[in-house]
Amino acid sequence: MKAIGIIHDEHRSLAAVLHGMLYLVRDIRERGSAPNFDLLSAMVYYIDAFPERYHHPKEDGYLFRLLRKRHPAAAPVLDQLERQHKEGAAKIRDLEQALARYREGGAAGFPGFAAAVSDYADFHWDHMRTEEETVIPMARERLTPEDWKEIDAAFTDHGDPLFGAKAEAEYDSLFRRIVNLAPPPIGVGPAPAT
Ligand SMILES: [Fe+2]
Ligand SMILES: [Fe+2]
Fold first, then answer.
1. How far apart are CA 63 and CA 13, in angstroms?
2. How many Å lie between the centroid of ligand 1 and the Cα of residue 19?
3. Among 11, 144, 160, 178, which is least packed, fewest CB within 10 Å?
4. In the prediction, which pLDDT does 192 show?
5. Distance CA 77, CA 137 (A)
6. What's this model's pTM, rounded to 2 decimal places?
């Protein structure tokens, strides 16, 4: 069941970036810090690319597909989560547009961007919680050792161009870039100008 640990790790990486964005928004609102648009763009890019192209397809294509087969009663929650995977893509577009308006239009664009960040963070936390608290326990109970072999292979297949080592290394380096750009306490980059 290596895949379970990988799903948890991927959720933690995503949560760290979401927390980081909320922190930056609060810092701008409460301390009047200047926005670091390179950092905000890298974060939005990460939460677009990482869940949409890397994390969700593995859940849909392997974990959810096999759980549907072994446990038909899981269908409603899996339908809801797959719907959220699609909704997430639209929410990311909202977030990108709000960031572009903020970057181009200045302070007048801040409230819209702040609202889009908190909307996306709430949405995605709720989604990850349902996966961790409802779906993973069902999967542990219902899936067979053969199912886990197939799921683990998909989550650890280092030869796969979409999910393999190369893709993983790209997301890791993007994550490191965020950590290097972000000011303490969320990263190791320079403190924001006030
Ligand atoms: Fe998901
Ligand atoms: Fe997930």
1. 20
2. 18
3. 144
4. 64
5. 13
6. 0.89
